[in-house]
């Protein structure tokens, strides 16, 4: 209970760290939010605090500016969307994060009002590796509030001032979103119902090594399944001796991936790789996409999605699973000719939940955006995480600074 943990909320200045890092399309005159999932997921905790009469100060990042203001990373479009979602609430925006102007804006806040501070990463102290510099910035942040609520789950793997250091300086608590995300991850890592199926995609196998190590090392057991697609799969296919043409390949990971193939076989974990792929002559929608066997990708082509036969096999491997975790698209889903694999996996997760009551989790970032872009609704899945890197690091078995600091 936030109220008890923080020693009362009414009239208190509560600093909330949210993750409002949403994808923006800058091609038009005004930036357009293409997936507002993280903003929507942040609203319940904010409402809870506002309803209790707190004076709510929200801090968040957008993108990766280098410690100084950059117009394209402004949270102004996020402020507009947040104000729509919090209809009836006075939602103000402060164009800086700390200092006189921020202090005055916070002082002007009344009970039940909210102030969103500009992108916290416009300040070098936020992400500094120097603990003193980060600490000095955290002091300034902490001076704006009486209590701190950590609700930006997507950023809890970052040892940043607003995620970590500020919690050392104020009475603090986890918000509802962080609590829910952690419960889901605990369910995925502590005695999950089996068969347990994990689907991994995305472009680089080197981003997923820690997760695969932990999956094959401890989380998956005999009868469980590991399905691999996306750009990273070509390193798996090459490791089994197949020609992958001009597909993405991380040659320096081949030995490690061969080790994974051996471990999976020894443990009885079924490793499901595509048997066909959609291959094109270039990274473009109109580059003559063709379905080719996974062991005969022509030398002048690159694979950009798993093929239809593979999509059926992936769906079959998910059909009777009791627990499913999916991270990373199967192909370049943003281009329709290469969206089939990702759509099929999303559909298979939906069916596994509907037909066998599987607990299905879509792990944040790109995968969450993918399922929404492809027209699926959040309610069709057991949980759509707001954390990409954060969920993966949790599944790697790592300590996350933003969770550790909350005890
Ligand atoms: C994310 O998008 O995964 C989170 O918002 C964290 O962003 P970061 O990877 O830039 O720290």
TrEMBL record:
Binding site residues for ATP: 208, 303, 334, 364-367
Catalytic activities: (2R)-3-phosphoglycerate + ATP = (2R)-3-phospho-glyceroyl phosphate + ADP
Pathway assigned in UniProt: Carbohydrate degradation; glycolysis; pyruvate from D-glyceraldehyde 3-phosphate: step 2/5
Keyword Glycosyltransferase applies: no
Gene3D superfamilies registered for this protein in UniProt: Phosphoglycerate kinase, N-terminal domain (3.40.50.1260)
Family recorded in the similarity comment: Belongs to the phosphoglycerate kinase family.
Subunit structure: Monomer.
Name of the protein in question: Phosphoglycerate kinase
Organism, as annotated: Kineococcus mangrovi
Gene: pgk
């Amino acid at each position: 209970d936030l109220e008890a943990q923080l020693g009362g909320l009414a009239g208190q200045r509560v600093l909330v760290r949210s993750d409002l890092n949403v994808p923006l399309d800058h091609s038009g005159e005004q930036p357009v939010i293409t997936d507002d999932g993280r903003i929507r997921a942040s609203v319940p905790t904010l409402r809870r605090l506002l309803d209790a009469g707190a004076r709510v100060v929200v801090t968040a990042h957008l993108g990766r500016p280098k410690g100084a203001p950059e117009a394209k990373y402004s949270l102004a479009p996020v402020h507009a969307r947040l104000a729509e979602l919090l209809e009836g609430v006075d939602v103000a925006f402060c164009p800086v994060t700390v200092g006189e102007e921020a202090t005055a804006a916070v002082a002007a806040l009344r009970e039940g009002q909210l102030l969103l501070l500009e992108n916290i990463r416009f300040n070098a102290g936020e992400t500094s590796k120097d603990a003193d510099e980060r600490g000095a910035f955290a002091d300034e942040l902490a001076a704006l509030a009486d209590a701190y609520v950590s609700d930006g789950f997507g950023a809890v793997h970052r040892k940043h001032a607003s995620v970590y250091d500020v919690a050392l300086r104020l009475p603090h608590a986890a918000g509802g979103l962080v609590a829910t995300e952690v419960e889901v991850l605990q369910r995925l890592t502590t005695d999950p119902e089996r068969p347990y199926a994990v689907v991994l995609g995305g472009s680089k196998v080197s981003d997923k090594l820690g997760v695969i190590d932990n999956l094959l090392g401890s989380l998956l057991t005999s009868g469980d399944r590991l399905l691999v697609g996306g750009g990273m799969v070509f390193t798996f296919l090459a490791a089994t001796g197949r020609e992958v043409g001009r597909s993405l390949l991380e040659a320096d990971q081949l030995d490690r991936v061969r080790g994974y193939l051996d471990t999976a076989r020894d443990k009885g974990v079924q490793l499901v790789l595509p048997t066909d792929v959609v291959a094109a002559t270039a990274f473009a929608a109109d580059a003559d996409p063709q379905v080719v066997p996974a062991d005969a990708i022509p030398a002048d082509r690159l694979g950009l999605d798993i093929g239809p036969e593979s999509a059926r096999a992936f769906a079959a491997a998910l059909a009777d699973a009791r627990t499913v975790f999916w991270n990373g698209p199967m192909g370049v889903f943003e281009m329709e000719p290469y969206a089939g694999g990702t759509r099929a996996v999303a559909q298979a997760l939906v069916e596994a939940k509907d037909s066998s009551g599987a607990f299905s989790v879509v792990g944040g970032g790109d995968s969450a955006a993918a399922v929404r872009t492809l027209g699926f609704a959040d309610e069709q899945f057991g949980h759509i995480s707001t954390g990409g890197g954060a969920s993966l690091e949790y599944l790697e078995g790592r300590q996350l600074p933003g969770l550790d600091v909350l005890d």
